Amino acid sequence: MVNDGATALGAAQPEEAAFAHPVSSGEPILEVRGLVKHFPLTQGVLFKKQVGAVKAVDGVSFDLIKGETLGIVGESGCGKSTLAKVLMNLEQATGGSVRYKGEEISRLGGSALKAVRRNIQMVFQDPYTSLNPRMTVGDIIGEPYEIHPEVAPKGERRKAVQDLLDVVGLNPEYINRYPHQFSGGQRQRIGIARGLALKPEIIICDEPVSALDVSVQAQVINLLEQLQGEFDLSYMFIAHDLSIVRHISDRVGVMYLGKMVEIGADLEIYDHATHPYTQALLSAVPVPDPGAREHRDRIVLTGDVPSPANPPSGCRFRTRCWKAQEKCAIEEPLLARPHWLTGPAAHDSACHFASERADDGGAATEGDRSGS
């Protein structure tokens, strides 16, 4: 693990090193391995003593391929937003590795971190609090140019901001307005324009449509898809709404209690889910057809989500899982492709008894084949 940002990207020219490795389509632009973020729990006032830790993110690994959209789903508290903040270095990682274009960035600081952040931007969840109410739209979108003046010289910044407003579907003449003069959907468009200002390669979207009406959600999602084609962007899209994630994502990762429990192409996850938690999530998605809804086989999970400060041993989902056996409490399942599954069901799943719902009756036998 690199502790010095200058050493990680080259002490002499960190800005140049961050862009020195072009990545072609189909190759990973962001590689995350064993990423950990623990928040300490302390006791005492004058003499604080650590008595535990909240394991918000605990060993997450995945790749983000250039030009793709990776959706991240999971219930509240599973660590999705913390994962996004750690990737942006807004929160310092406790452990693990984040590599951008082959360069370790999880321990960067100073000019090296500044160089990488130019190419990895973020769109925040709440369009009402992520914009400074005391700044005009022009100042908000143009602020990145103050930090990275090489992108747009001073004389060209006003036109650059107006061009960005036009790109996201807003009137360029709105440049002198304040955030309170816009609707929620318009504010989110302003947030997207700010994210595009530095011409990044990666945009991390932390639930960018959860605070918006359904019709406005569709407009923002369509805008993101359009911009991805125009600017060759790679997205990490975090959301609760599984239907939205399916619409925009090429691959989907499912998180539970700080862990990635299943990851695969959108078809593999939505039509051939093999992890019990993913199957429970999908069974809760609303169905517009009343007839189909009446005959639907819904999976109702019992019990509460365990505390991330004291997660269960072995498989973290075992306390709510109908497939749980003794092996699940002893041995933590790895996120890997089960050898007994074939076709679209053969994708990474962290379950000792991974199977599609139609094959649940054979799960125990499959588990025996996996060494239980």
UniProtKB/TrEMBL annotation:
UniProt cross-references to Pfam families, sorted A to Z: ABC_tran (PF00005), oligo_HPY (PF08352)
UniProt-recorded Gene Ontology molecular function terms: ATP binding; ATP hydrolysis activity
Domain ABC transporter as annotated: residue spans: 30-282
PROSITE patterns: ABC_TRANSPORTER_1, ABC_TRANSPORTER_2
CDD domains, sorted: ABC_NikE_OppD_transporters
Entry superkingdom: Bacteria
Biological process terms in GO annotation: peptide transport; transmembrane transport
Alphabetically ordered keywords of this record: ATP-binding, Nucleotide-binding, Transport
Family: Belongs to the ABC transporter superfamily.
Protein name: Oligopeptide transport system ATP-binding protein
